[in-house]
Amino acid sequence: MSKYYNPKRGSDWNYGGRNWKLSRSKLELFLECPKCFYLDNKLGTKRPPGYPFNLNTAVDTLLKKEFDILRAKGEKHPLQKEYGVDAVPVPHEDLDEWRDNFKGVAITHEKTGMIVTGAIDDLWIDSNDNYIVVDYKSTSTDEQITELTKDHHESYKRQMEIYQWLLRQKGYKVSDKGYFVYCNGRTDVEAFDGKIEFDVTLIEYVGDDSWVENTIIAAHKCLESDDIPKSDEDCDYCAYRKTVEKLEK
């Protein structure tokens, strides 16, 4: 067995196990391909993982430190001032837990009994005491990033909407308006000199979490079934699996 990829997990981490939770990423997988979602969460066979984005993680960590300095002072970040945002980073006793990938914002879904979770990057508050969900993104492209128009940006939008939904389920007043702090690594500088320079933009997004409730119910129905669902027609993993099966016959 590969030392990098173990396709099977212990039963405690599968649906019905004591450690299983419906995370934001699991819900996204259900939308992407119900069959892969079922194989992963019901039968315990995971997709091969992608490579970790350690550089993106480093950018996230540094952004959190930067906003936390101003959070402690009750001051606006220069980015908030530049874009005229009516908000400041808000201190909250649960923020460290909500940022933790193994904990996150967690609620027990009343209709299904499932624990639904999602780890946020940041939380701001406006002058009307509305909480604002903030997500950090980093990449490197020659295009100037000022809006979310690419196909993969749709999952970013859903990500924010799930976070907004989770906080509302916990009883918080949450603005529909959220923000993406987008860091774009520049390649047009003269030399590397041991550092990467970033253009940082703030992208406003007005979320609509009305789809979340029904999607959670649909995911639960999928997991409760004894039948493996069909693949999504655009799923590369399922297409590869089908092709290999034909070759091996």
Name the strands of the widest sheet in spatial order: 2-5-6-7-8
Number of helices: 8
User: What is the overall shape?
Assistant: globular
Strand content: 15-25%
CATH fold-level assignment: Lambda Exonuclease, Chain A
CATH secondary-structure class: Alpha Beta
Terminal CA distance reads 23 Å
**How many runs of DSSP E, i.e. beta strands?**
8
H/E order of the elements? EHHHHEHEEEEHEEHH
Helix residue percentage: 25-40%
Structural class: alpha/beta
Task: Report the major sheet.
Answer: 5 strands, mixed
Low-confidence stretches: none
Q: What is the average of the pLDDT values?
A: 93
Multimerization status: single chain
Characterise this structure.
The protein is an alpha/beta fold and 249 residues long. It has a single domain (19-225), classed as Lambda Exonuclease, Chain A (Alpha-Beta Complex), CATH 3.90.320. Helices cover 36% and strands 17% of the residues. The chain contains eight helices and eight strands, in the order βααααβαββββαββαα. The strands form two sheets. The protein has a five-stranded mixed sheet with strand order 2-5-6-7-8, sandwiched between helices. The protein has a three-stranded mixed sheet with strand order 1-4-3. A hairpin with a 5-residue loop joins strand 5 and strand 6. Helix 1 crosses helix 2 (34-41). The longest helix is centred in the N-terminal third of the chain and has 20 residues, at 54-73. It starts with 21 loop residues before the first strand and ends with a helix. The model has no long low-confidence stretch (mean pLDDT 93).
